[in-house]
Amino acid sequence: MKLWRIALLSFLSCPLWAQQINLGPPAVRGTLQATNCPVLTGDVTASANTCVTTLTVHTLTINTSSPLGGGGSVALGGTLTITCTTCSTTNGTVTSIATTSPITGGTITTTGTIACATCVVASSPGVGLAHFAGSTQTVTSSAVNLASADVTGVLPAANSTYQVLSAQFSNTDSVNCPNNTTGNFATTYTIPANYLTANKLLRVILGLALTTSASPPTIAYRMTVGGTNVYVAAGAVPTASLSGIAIGITFVIQGSAAAGASVAVYTHPLNGYMGLSSSVNGIFQETTALTIVQPVNLATNGTLVIQPQLFCSANTAGNSMKVQQMVVEALN
Questions:
Q1: DSSP 70-134
Q2: What distance in Å separates the CA atoms of residue 261 and residue 301, rounded to the nearest whole number?
Q3: Is 8 contained in some domain?
Q4: Are 129 and 241 contained in the same domain?
Q5: What secondary structure does DSSP assign to 23-73, as a single string?
Q6: Is position 271 within any domain?
Q7: What is the mean predicted confidence (pLDDT) over 44-54?
Q8: What is the pTM of this model?
Q9: Into how many domains does the chain fold?
Q10: Are residues 172 and 305 in the same domain?
C-alpha cells in the first residue's frame, strides 16, 4: 500500500493543461494510427483510415511529326522507341553533276570543271556608266566614249542639249483651201509633258509647197500649240497659177517657268519666205487686228501638239498647200 500511494500522489501532483499536441518530432515518436490518416485526392490519392497513398498520373505522352514516328504514351520508368524510316544513317555521295546553259562542263561523275563563257562579271567599279568592256562579258564602269561604237541611238529629249527631236517629210500631206476657216495638216509634233520649262527652246522649221488657181483667195499660214492659237497670219492673195512653189517659215518656241497648268510660252516667227515674189509674202504676215500677243499661256504640264494650219478666205478650187518638211530641234 505504501508504494501505491506514492504512485498516486506522483500522478496527482502532475499539472494538467488544455494544450494541443505537436505531432512533429521530437515531441511525438512512433507510427500514426490508421484511423488518423485523411482522405487524399488529385494526382496522389489515399483512402480514409489507411495511410496508403497511390500515384494516379504515371504516364507521359510523346508526340512526333514527319519524318519521325513511334510517338505515344509511356509509363514512368518505361521505354518508348522513336523511329525515322527515311532518315539516312550513312554519309551521302554525289555521283553525277549535270549543267544547263549558260553553265557548261557537265555531266561530271568524278572530277571536272564548270564554266560560263557568257556570264556577266563585274570589274572594279570606277567613274562612268556601267557597260561591257569590248567583246568580253566583263562589265566595267569606266568612262564611255560617245563617239565610239559603244553608244548607239539618240539620247532622250529630256536629257539632251541640242538635238533634232523630229524630222518628218511627205509629199502627200496636202490641204485644199477651206471656206473662210482653217484646215489642219496631218504632219504635227507633240511636245512632251513637262518639257517646256524656264528658257527651254525649240526651233520649228516648216517646208511648204503652194499651189494656186487662176483666181486665188486670200491664203494664210497659221499654227496652234496645244489647241491654242500661237501664230495667226492675216494672209494675202498670192500670185495666180502657182504649181507647188516652195515656201517656208521658222519659229522659236520658248518656255518661261516650271511646267504647270497655265504657263507663259513665247512663240515667234524668225522669217517667212515666198520664193516667187516678195509681194506675196503676206501669206505669213500678221496684222494689228489678228496679231497674237506673246506670250501665250499654255498647259505645259501636259503634252502639247504643234499643229500647222492653212487658212483661206474661200474654198476656191485649185488652191492648196502641202507640208513637205517639219523639223523640230531642241536648242538647249
A1: --EEEETT-----B-TTS--S------B---TT-BS--BSSS---B-TT--EE----SS--EE-T
A2: 6
A3: no
A4: no
A5: -STTT--S---GGGPPPB-SSEEE-TTT--EEE---EEEE---TT-B--EE
A6: yes
A7: 71
A8: 0.55
A9: 3
A10: yes
- Phi then psi for residue 278, to 5 deg, are -70, -20
Q: What is the grid cell recorded at 252?
A: 522659236
Grid cell listed for 79? 521505354
Classify residue 51: in a domain, yes or no.
Answer: yes
Instruction: Give the DSSP letter of residue 158.
Output: G
Q: What is the mean pLDDT of the chain?
A: 80
* Residue 207 confidence (pLDDT) above 80: yes
By residue count, the chain amounts to 332
Domain that includes residue 70, residue range: 36-74
Between the alpha carbon of residue 59 and those of residues 14, 44, 257, 318, the distances in Å are 56, 14, 86, 112
Cα 113 to Cα 109, 116, 144: the distances in Å are: 11, 10, 35
Residues 123 and 270 in one domain: no
Give the span between the Cα atoms of 60 and 43, in whole angstroms: 14
- How far is CA 14 from each of CA 45, 67, 91, 163, 259, rounded to the nearest angstrom? 42, 79, 87, 130, 118
Spatial CA neighbour of 201 closest among 250, 152, 273, 260: 250
The whole-number average pLDDT for the span 156-164 is 72
Same domain, residue pair 168 and 230: yes
Q: How far apart are CA 256 and CA 305, in angstroms?
A: 18
Based on the fold, state whether residues 295 and 229 are members of the same structural domain.
yes
Q: What cell does 104 get?
A: 557548261
Report residue 4's pLDDT band, with 50, 70 and 90 as the boundaries.
Answer: very low
Examine the domain organization and report whether 126 and 176 are in the same domain: no
Tell me if 10 is assigned to some domain: no
Say what percent of the chain tops pLDDT 70: 68
d(CA 321, CA 187): 12
Cis check for the bond before 107: say yes or no (omega within 30 of 0). Answer: yes
- Give yes or no for a contact between 232 and 222, defined as CB atoms under 8 angstroms apart: yes
Cell numbers that stand for 52 in this block: 496508403
175/292 same-domain check: yes
Residue 24 in this model has a pLDDT that exceeds 60: no
